[in-house]
Amino acid sequence: RLDRGLSGSDIRHRSVLSAVYDLPALRDSGFLGKIFGGWRTGVIATFQSGPPYTVYSAVNQTNAFPAGSLRADVIGNPNLAESERSLGRWFNTSAFRIPEPYKFGTAGRATMSGPGLWNIDSSFIKSFPIRESWTAELRAEFFNLFNHANFGLPGHSVGGPAYGVISSSASGRNAQFAVRIEF
Q1: pLDDT tens-place string over residues 132-156
Q2: Is 95 left (phi over 0), alpha (psi -120 to 50) or beta?
Q3: DSSP conformation class of 155
Q4: Full-model pTM
Q5: Burial (0-12, 13-18, 19+ Cβ within 10 Å), 45
Q6: How far apart are CA 103 and CA 32, in angstroms?
Q7: d(CA 69, CA 106)
Q8: For the chain: N or C, fewer Cβ within 10 A?
Q9: CB–CB of 141/159 below 8 Å?
Q10: How far apart are CA 145 and CA 176, in angstroms?
Q11: Amino acid 3: pLDDT
Q12: How far apart are CA 155 and CA 161, in angstroms?
C-alpha cells in the first residue's frame, strides 16, 4: 500500500470489486478430489484515479512568519498530454514559478492529479478435515498479483530537487503462505 497522506474523500474516482469462488475441478472425484479438489479462490480488485495535489514554492518570500502553505505562481498550462508524461516529467514544470517577493502564489489547492492506481489481490484456500472436529486450511495469498507499478506523487515543490519527478512507488508483488488449524 502506498500511503499518500490522503483521506478517502480526496480520491475522485475509486472502485473496489471483490469475489469468492469455489473451484469446481475434482470436487467429487474420490481420493484425487480429497487431495486436489475443494479449493476456493478470492480476489479483490482496486482501481482509482490519481490523487489531487498542490504545487508549492520551496522559498518563503512573503515576509510573513509563519506564512502557512506557500503555493507557487501559475504562469502557464501545467497539464501535459498523456503521451508527453513520463516519470521524469509528470507535468509542465515551467508552468509554475516561485512568487515574487512579498506576494503569495496563485496556484489553487489540489488542482493537479497524480498517477492512478490499479491493484489485484488474490487468495487460494484449501480446507480439509484432520479429525472429527479439527480442520486444516492451506492458504496462499498474493498482493499486487500482476506486479503492476503503482507510482507515487511527483515532486511538487518549485525549486525542490525532485520537482516534477515521480521517484516512489508502492511495493511490488508480495506473497504469503499459511496453515491454519481450527478446532
Answers
A1: 888 899 999 999 999 999 999 999 9
A2: alpha
A3: B
A4: 0.77
A5: middle
A6: 76
A7: 12
A8: C
A9: no
A10: 12
A11: 43
A12: 8
Bridge partners, residue 155, by sequence: 163
Q: What is the CA radius of gyration of the chain?
A: 25
| Helix, strand and coil percent figures for the chain, each rounded to 5 | 10, 40, 50
pLDDT tens sequence across 21-76: 988 766 666 777 666 777 899 999 999 999 999 999 988 888 887 767 789 999 99
Question: In this predicted structure, what is the pLDDT of residue 4?
Answer: 47
Helix (H) or strand (E) holding 143: strand 135-143
d(CA 65, CA 19): 53
Strands 39-48 and 56-57, bridge-based pairing: unpaired
CA 31 vs. chain centroid, Å, equals 43
Instruction: Classify burial at 89, counting beta carbons within 10 Å of its beta carbon; exposed 0-12, middle 13-18, buried 19 or more.
Output: middle
Cβ(70)–Cβ(62) below 8 Å: yes
Helices (H), the chain: 30-36
161 phi/psi in degrees, rounded to 5 = -70, -25
Alpha-carbon distances, residue 17 vs 70, 96, 119, 127 (angstroms): 39, 38, 11, 24
176 sits in which H/E element: strand 174-182
Place of cell 481420493: 31
